[in-house]
Sequence to fold (2030 residues):
Amino acid sequence: MGNPTGFLKVDRAMPETRDAAERLIDWQEVYQPMAEAEIRDQASRCMDCGVPFCQSGESQYAPAVAGCPVNNVIPEWNDLVYRGRWKEALQVLHKTNNFPEFTGRVCPAPCEGSCVLGINADPVTIKLHEHAIIERGFQEGWVVANPPARRSGKTVAVIGSGPAGLACAAQLNKAGHRVTVYERADRIGGLLMYGIPNMKLQKEFVKRRVTLLKAEGIRFITNTEVGKDLPTSQLKSEFDSVVVCTGATVPRDLAVEGRELNGVHYAMEFLGKNTKSLLDSDHRDSNYINAAGKHVVVIGGGDTGTDCVGTSLRHGCASVIQLEIMPKPVDERAANNPWPQWPKVLNVDYGQKEAIAIQSEDPRQYLVMTQKIEGDTDGNVSAVHTVDISWQKNDQGQMIPQPVAGSEKVHPADIVLLAMGFMGPEQGLLDNLEVQTDGRSNVDAQYDQFATNVPGIYAAGDARRGQSLVVWAIDEGRRAAREVDRYLMGETYLP
Amino acid sequence: MSDSRNRSTGLYRPEFEHDSCGIGFVANLKGRKSHQIIENALTMLTCMEHRGGTGFDVKSGDGAGILIQIPHDFFKQQSASLGFTLQDAGDYGVGMLFFPPQAEQMRQCRNLLISNIEKLGLTLLGFRGVPTDNSGLGQASLDTEPQIEQVFIQKPEGLDSQVFERKLYILRKSTCHQINETIATEKDEFYIASMSARTLVYKGQLTTAQVREYYLDLQNEDVDTAMAMFHSRFSTNTFPAWRRAQPFRYLSHNGEINTVQGNVNWMKAREALFESINFSNEELQLLHPVCNRESSDSANLDMAIELLVLSGRPLAQVMMMVVPEAWQSQDDMDPVKRAFYEYYSCVMEPWDGPASISFTDGKVIGATLDRNGLRPSRYLVTEDGMLVMGSETGALVVDQSKVIQKGRLQPGKIFIADLEQGRIISDEEVKADVCASQPYGEWLEQYKIVIDDLPTPEEEFHQPLMASLFKRQQAFGYSSEDLQRILAEMVGTAKEPLGAMGTDNPLAILSDKSQHLSNYFKQLFAQVTNPPIDPIREEMVMSLRTYVGGSLNLLEETPRHCHKVEIKQPLLTNPQLMKLKHIDHDHFQSKTLDTVFRANGKPGSLEKALDRICYYAKDAVEDGYSIIILSDRAIDSDHAPIPSLLVTAAVHHYLIRQGLRAKADLIVESGDVRETHHFATLLGYGASAVNPYLALETLLELRNEGVVDASLSDTQLFDRYTQAVNSGLLKIFSKMGISTLQSYQGAQIFEALGINSEVVNSYFTGTVSRIEGIGLDQIAQEALQRHRQGFAPEGRIAIDDLLPSGGEYAWRKDGERHLFNPTTIRLLQHATSNNDQTQFGEYAKNVDEQSQAAFTLRGLMKFNPDRPSIPLSEVEPIEEIFKRFATGAMSFGSISWEAHTTLAIAMNRIGGKSNSGEGGEDPIRFTPEANGDSKKSRIKQVASGRFGVTSYYLANADELQIKMAQGAKPGEGGQLPGHKVDAWIGRTRGSTPGVGLISPPPHHDIYSIEDLSQLIFDLKNANREARINVKLVSEAGVGTIASGVCKGYADVVLIAGYDGGTGASPLSSIKHAGLPWELGLSETHQTLVRNKLRSRITVQADGQMKTPRDLAIATLLGAEEWGVATAALIVEGCTMMRKCHLNTCPVGIATQDKELRARYQGKVEHVVNFFTFMAEGLRELMAELGFRSINEMVGQTQCLDIRDNIDHWKFKGVDLSPILYKEPTPDGETLYNSIAQKHLIDEIIDRKLIKDAQPALDNQQPVSLEYGIISTDRSVGAMLSNEISKKYNDVGLPEDCIQVKFSGSAGQSFGCFGAKGIRFELEGDANDYFGKGLSGGKLVVYPDAQAPFEPSQNILIGNVAFFGATSGSAFIRGIAGERFCVRNSGATAVVEGVGDHGCEYMTGGKTVILGATGRNFAAGMSGGVAYVLDRKKDFAAKCNMEMVALETLEDSAEIAELHDLIEQHRKQTGSDVAQALLADWPTAVADFVKVMPVDYRQMQAYMDQARSSGKYPTEEEVAEAAFDMHLNNLAAQKA
Fold:
């Protein structure tokens, strides 16, 4: 720690964002670059804690307690950033995280939620530093393919090319195994490619990493759905081990009247098609759900909902609102949400900021329950009926929503996007592989063992854990790789 | 005698015993014999009773005795009735024999002695039963009482008397060796106290008074002598044996030889080379072993001196060899003397440690003091030739009108009374004679080689490729913390890196991470029985110089003895090592041995390699190589490095056993050495110097990459690192009270923790290791773990491209484990802030349940109930538990006001005790708050800095804690930097804001166990309601020290674990010094029970106590009270930042920064919740284990057992049975404190004083009183002052309200804590600690009006006067001893001369010295002013200029003030010196030098500025403004 009093002298600062009006005309990232000197100043705020809670993410306590799930050695690279020792910072960062360019953009940064400075001041801008380190690395040409010196002679198939699959493949490849990644979409990246919109994670960055992984010797096979395009028996016989990293892609549905109407979509369909069309043709092919001039109602107040808001605004929607059944988060940590837990406080993300800029108010409405979706005669959606609710305990002591009489509202709607989270992995492939699932329909495998009931078959990421964060997926992919390596070689030297 | 009690069981070991004592002698300078001399000596001995100790049985002393000349006339007269005839004096020798009491054994012993007498060609004259009267002896003494006889042996006709002495010596040694090897059933059952034609020793396990009563000879008027040397022993334990009493044959020793293990080993190593013209080789064989490990340090010293004297050296020379002056850094020393010391440092290492030694060969008698001079030695000479020398003045009442000289022995000085010449020979004369006896300087010039003068070898040194560095760093176990936190910081600061908040990692033996072997070795440190040294402020006594090369015969003195290579400090750079490797100086050659082993993982590989290296080393030495270099540069894929410590110790001990060790020295070239502790362990196990090549290469890398200052040259880089290592080494030596590398080398000042006895006995012979642990194969396995990182096994493809994080000093996910980690901190904070017992349970479970792993020794234990569980309701109520809680000692200054008072209020609410720490306490806290809360700390600490320790402070305590050591840095001092001393803290500590404060490593009034006993007595007098608590740190032998503490009448002894928190401490101390409390506590409990002392004292334990289970285990191991600190801080919001030393605590706890303090969020309620959870949890465990009360539970170790599931490859070998051993409870003894200590304060002078001063105490009416005083009247004034402080707070009484005149010799601590309003006048003289803690009173002392000597030339008061004085004044007409005004923070004192280290660590007040000073004046003086009359203009050379500047007097107000002080001095004492000065004042002024601390002056200037601005009406505001100016100035300087 170069500057013991940095945190007293420097206030937290983030890079400037581009003006909302300006950024809505393209699909580029919203943040502007920050000067190196300023970033280093920010890094001086790190206190190099004796017990760095930022580093402390642990599956056992997730997500109730924050801290980096891949256990990035944050104090060390903060210090290196402060000192301008970027190359070493990159080494330390890469030691725990294969893809800092992804987490540096899309991670909600539980590390910052548990930053010790956050007890009584603004936490350190950890994610900013992560982003700066990896981009500096690419810029300087320090991030290069580093294929293993020798090959082990073992082969592994990874099903799914999302963050878990990629991390797992990268690690296994380091151990010398021949890794083949199967992806049913046309592009590699899974959620990174089609789940997260371009303005949050520009797709060239995903490609940039995939190119490196290819150069390191990983085979990527797209447009191939295992179990359909490729029999699982063939997979099992061709590979020494298989890792299932198919994600939790089954969206939560909304059982209300009018659900079947045209214009009611799952958020992922909306976002995925949008990105594909953007990449394929810069939207010229029109193979996407266009919100231009339409009234959009997003149901679900999470990050995916926000992405729908941002995407709709970029299309030029007539209006967009976002409905949330939970209460509005508080501005400051509540007593029952103490540090170092993830702070459940109100966060105004890019989508909301843009909506505020255009519509002059936050698109989110809280404690609102959708009662029905109304359609026109053509079967197209026309409005969403809601009622305000309050949460009450029922006889069994469960909290259940109680409608507030007289609070019914009707919102005009041309497009309704369901962004209420995910239920778990698709079951077909799992059945096919004869892999058992748990009560929540996830693959039944212990964290840090990752072995399924089928010898040689492992599972990692959201498919095992359920819907989660990119950074948890990376963690699972890395750890699963270690177990696969141990399975293949008898011992493992992977971190 | 039966020694069966001494067999070690449990954790106690006989070798832990310590003692210290009162010594002295009486002699007639003219050699006139009389019985009166014996009488006088025995009287003095009795007056030193308070320096001796008694155990549970007050009639059994710790040992006392007397050495006299052979009373020829008496024996001649006796012999008539014994059937033999004695001729002339000197024609026969007398042996004082202690026989086993059993008749048969006695007969055998006697027969063997008789046959040996014949074998040596001597004639037996006969035996004489020594008449004794054992009716007054206590049971313990009776149990071991020997049968005592004297044997008379005829000197062969014509034999030289010295040759006869040698014969008697051989007879004694060989007979004792033989008997104890054959006949004796117990070790040393047969003993010969003395055997000489000149001297005779009467001694035994006696109290001082019993010596006379027991030995009827001593009462016989016909027994006469011209000299009598006596000794009384204060042992830390109560099974001293008769033979352990002193005097020995040549000396009486008051002190402690800290390096005795090394000295004994080196003596043994040299034995093989012994040859002497005075002894035949056969005779020499009979003498071996000269020294032995079983005997005490003093006994070994005596045996070494005896050999050196009898083999032909003069006694004075021998004393100079074994206890040399500090010569290395004394540039002004006479070159002839310097040459002598340097020559002898090539021959023999010093026997290092505090030592006041009286010695005699029967013809001359003398005394010497070690270089630190920490033991008092006072003498006087009368006009009729009587010489009286002793630890105290006044022990013998002497007609003062006959006293012609009063003096003291000074550090490193020697003096001898030659009774044949009839005069005292001064230090200068003695040494000049000795030093001129040979041309030592010429010899050195001719033979000594200085390493830098050696030719640079032609073969160029090749730095291995930088590319291989990373790989080798891995193979030697480097972590990134080693680079960043250790090496880079060492270069950055040229000091050892600092840390904070203790340690909570697993012990090395319990860690899953591959451990450096030295992590298993815990540094020992001095506490109580001898003082640590301040290696910074008292650097002049320290030395890192050593000499390498083979040694020659110790019993000779030839030029070639100094044919050695001088190395200035033990870290060798590569070129220096190359010079040694290529040395080729007539037969002076070096041999390099590869210290690697086959990395095949097979059991036995390491052992084979060690065997091979030992053989090769033997070959090399036999072939004449005198330097052996142990190098691990030869590692490769198939060969792993042997831990350098292991191989060094192995070769060292192997060569000792082979009798070859003295012929060569060991140099280590190793890649595994980087931290100070690594160097220390290597040196401690026999290395002379170390080349840490990999650390050096790593430094180059760090420099080249700009991690450390890229502009540093190679030399600068290595110099800074070397400086850091050196200062760290000096600190490690000094914490054990060792001054020189030469004595530290091979001294094995470590306890092994987690190494099995097979390894210890083979390779670390003599090291204490009590819980077993890993063996060679596990050591190999750990080495291979590291090796595999660097040299990847086949099949491994994934390669690490970074070093592991480490995680030792800061938590890392993949690093070493910590008990306080994100999970436990979070759970504890949430549980206590939400008052959520369930969450607390979860927290405790996380800490306690370590499944297969373990962090702590208690983690390896489980409960093993031996009685049925009981309902919770039957367990004593929570209030009873609360009383037993204390919080740790943390000062206001180290933590913020907010954090400090939160703890105090919480503890007062529950009825526990908070601790003030060592920073004083703001009196506003003594008054309760309106809501009934109190911020008062019920425990007030008395630490070495004595900040704010006033009579009033002491009066406001329920418990007074003497901090002997601190877990995180035992044996070290501390420092509060000026920028942390704000106006408030300065006021509380009685110092100046902005001026740094130093806590010295030792208490300057505790150099020995009897000194501690004195401080306990002082404090008990200063507040008789308060418990006196002595805080010790766990280490091997702490149990025997605790026994000593109990025998010194402490009410409570606290055993602190090594792992406790701290504001700032060197990392190596946090990690490597001291032991877990489980060991120390258990040893303490066992030893106290064994000594029947347990019921007399309360035992408290602390050190990372975190959960109810911890409390329960501590209770079962013997503690009835507990201290909790770190966990309580976490409850206040601490997140273990470990940045306390930087003042940047972000939660406002360990900081004084106003902005950060505002962030503090701790709550009293949370702390209360925490202690409630702890107490409730403990009650639940008590119910489960079936204990209704804590008292019932204490020490019931049978309720603990080792866990079942211990199959860890590393720690399955641990054996906890010594910890769990239950000492049989002696009859009538309880396992908890049940008896109040007898404090001996009922019949003291102060009781009279209080009565007689009642008008003053009640109504402030002036009183004037007169008393006689003798040296056993100690701490006079403390209790009276307590009465004043209780009634009149810190305001006190009007000046001179209670005037008392004393006549005589005052005992120790005269006027201590004297409160305002008293004026004590003493006509006579005084002992040590005069005016200790003076709190506003006035002390005046001048010599007896009848005394003919010149007051200004004679010693009047003892050492360490005005230690910790806070206010008041004193006038001393005469000279004071060493360390005058040490840590004075406010008193004004005028004196006519002082010894060494005057005004050390002073922070305030004024000192006027109207005469000469000793050396090292003003060391560490950060405040106050001293005026020194420098008539000879030589003061500057004696002053330590680190923190002060010397000025002339110019300011007229100041001159007037000085004039006034001297005028007062004249008036109060009648000083003629003052008179003369005042008579010619202008000349006098010009001769004064003003000693002014630089920072203090700056702060005074700020204050003047603030005052004159008129903006600040009160002095408090002035101080605040000045502090702000200081901070602004600091900030400006930085910018």
User: Anything to note?
Assistant: Chain A touches chain B through 46 residues (CB under 8 Å). Chain A has a mean pLDDT of 95. The first strand of chain A starts at residue 155 and ends at 159.
